[in-house]
Amino acid sequence: MRLGLRLLFAFFVINGIAAFFVLRVFVAEIKPSVREVMEDMMVDTAHLLAELAADDLAAGRLADGRFAQQVRAYAQRTVDAPIWGLSKQSLDFRIYVTDAQGVVRFDSEQRAVGEDYSRWRDVARTLRGEYGARATREDPADDSTGVMYVAAPVQVDGRIAGVLTVAKPVRSVQRFIDRAERKVLAGGLLLLGLSAAVGVAVTLWMVWNVRRLRDYALSVQGPAAGAPAGDWTAPPPVPRVPGELGDLAQAMDRMRARLQGQDYVEGYVRALTHELKSPVAAIRGAGELLQDDLPAADRARFADQVVAQSERLQRLIDRLLELSKLEQRPHAEASAPVALAACAQQALQQVQARAAQRGIALALSGEGASGPWEAELITLALGNLLDNAVDFSPPGSTVQVRLNGPEVQVQDAGPGVPDYALPRLGERFFTTARPDGTRSGSGLGLAIVQRVMALHGGQMQVRNTAPGLCVTLTLP
Fold it and tell me: For this UniProt entry, which segments traverse the membrane (predicted)?
């Protein structure tokens, strides 16, 4: 199971359990709380009415006295009271009064006059001087038919002369209980939904940051051995993530730097060792032969071989150092617009003497653009292209340099490159045979050009033109 699903599942389980218990407690407490409030109000009412009934009970005119008339008038009142959105249209109190023996002397509903209520909990406890109250169901199987009874002593001359009980059906407040439960459930469901949304958002945020770290880890792998230099780009920026994930990103970046540096060095050592074998072996062989007595012509030939291989080693080392510096740079630096024509002119001047020795002409045409490029690197790239063109061009031919805005083409008149080798041009130490059959090149010239283009965000394209090879550099 993926990390996001695990986090989301765990959050929903925890949130669901918590919501279930919290909602259950709220809903379970609503009904008792409402009944407790109702009982508190009935206690006050019972004691107030007990004081009003005391004189009529003492005078023996409770059934038709002033108190009885006022209670009957109360029962006949019409009422329409909107209470927090619910309309109350009936008066629900039932009032009855018993004497000191528990016999009912007055009943507002005329249902129990003359009956003995001395054993009912509300009357019996009140006659003993205790708090008397009870809840009785009219239908024992139906909780909604319950009636709450709260009693208060009727005192005459400091003694308990009777009991006044106020009764109120629970169904009169059931509407308020039901509404409160609905609101609590609706609020609970809304809270659960909001919590779920927060959980989903937190999970998505966590998964997104973890995936950024994963993508970063995958993107910072070092270049494979033999990969084109132009494919080696600077590592992406470290993801900006908070907290421990940010610390992990920084640790990954430090690890990347160490591993990439190690791979970079190992790759260069392997490639350099391979390239040094041939010239070193040639120098050693020529040196051993020179220790013997040789004819002057042979000695001169082997001496020339030592010098030529030494120059090859020098060019290899110089190019390798140049490429190494370029590959360690994240991007090109330019402080002012650079004219492409000026860079081409400078590259031509650097190669002019070598081209003249080989009997090759150099020609520059077109108009180049100016842009935010690094002049030294652009000149270096063009110089390497011209060196390759001079090496592969036959004597008496012309190397064309054509400018077209931010684009420059270097066209030679040589044999071109086999089609299978075109995709590999730009790899370190990959060379093709020159017209004379030799492979004296270092294989780093086009790698340097590739890297210069990568630093500028440009690209290099190579194609055969029969005859010759055309290399096109496109700068942004």
Answer: 6-27, 184-208
